[in-house]
Specification:
The protein is mainly alpha-helical and 115 residues long. Helices cover 52% and strands 9% of the residues. The chain has four helices and two strands. The chain is elongated and about 75 Å long.
Amino acid sequence: MTSLSEVNAILSQLFTIIPRKMEKVEDYLAHTEMDAAEIITREEALLDIMTGKVNQKTRHNIRNDNISNTILDENNLTIRPCTMDEIRHIKKFLGKESEHKLKNAFYVKNIVTEA
């Protein structure tokens, strides 16, 4: 049987290995056996999520090992110069006093959120 002080010592170690935003560490430690069970469940779920993200990233990297990814690729973005129609549309929002200051514009598209 593990005591609450032992559980809290292990949790303190875990919090230094896997840091997270918290006001006071004391608020995240167990005060009763029920707290300990709930905290262990919470931390296991967090570790499962983190493991899934690491595995997903690893699989992504393995698939793309021979492909040189840019920062745009990594963030599912494409970028291209705006068309003349798009530039005219932008200038409408700038107004007469600012439209002459627009030199160039680019269209940035998130492939995941924008079809």
